[in-house]
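Subject: Sanity check before I submit

Could someone independently write out the structure tokens for this chain? I want to compare against mine line by line before I put it in a report. The sequence has 249 residues.
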Amino acid sequence: MASSQAAAPAQSVDFEAQQALALLAHQRLCAEYGAPFLFFSDKDPLSELISALLSHRTKNADSHRAYQQLRATFPSWEAVRDAPVLDVQRALSACTWPEQKAPRIQAVLREISRRCGDENLPPCSLDFLADRPIPEARAWLESISGVGPKTSAATLLFSTLRRPAMPVDSHHHRVAQRLGLIGPKVGEGPAHALLAALLPPDWTAQQVYDHHEALMFHGQKCCYYRQPACLRCIMLDACPYGRAIAGNG
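---
Independent answer below. Compare away.
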């Protein structure tokens, strides 16, 4: 099976230790939070792409409500693309910055239509990405303005394509940083390739999904942004951040 991300970054002298730690975190946190996890979405890849764009800097409940309102207002993605931008903006009122997301989504839909061969035709389904190597599929998506590594990975993994590409959200990123899987100055974007390189290249979409969800849940339920609950953390013995906190307590 193809690697779950783009070309792996150069390996450091600590790579084997970091990889072992990533697999330890996977084992413990998946057991802690009840993996395997059911996929939360059954959207086609184009719909998942739009949903992911709506989720930027927005609570899940709000972006979900905005997505549902958008689908209820317009009969097709072609209709969203061709509608007056203010109509799309009104349909997205439940999410943050609808005045920015409405024209961005329309621009993405126009670009996909152009790549399908005709900007006046409905956007293509993106199902063809199932047959492309994951790095190539991600590069195709990320060449669209406004689509970054988190959105491309979410489109491939969360949609009905079920490709093993791993998104990194803020919770996942925080847990990985505190564990020492990535450096303290590595942002969410660059973290995608670094963290994916630590996972076995033959992992299935379910395994990649479980890894992402387990680290995300840990960030939500224990490794909080403020006042993390280090003393009850199942990773405390392997976490330099947690040991420093516990040692100072």
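---
OP: Matches mine. For the report I'm noting this point. Confidence is low (pLDDT under 50) at residues 1-11.
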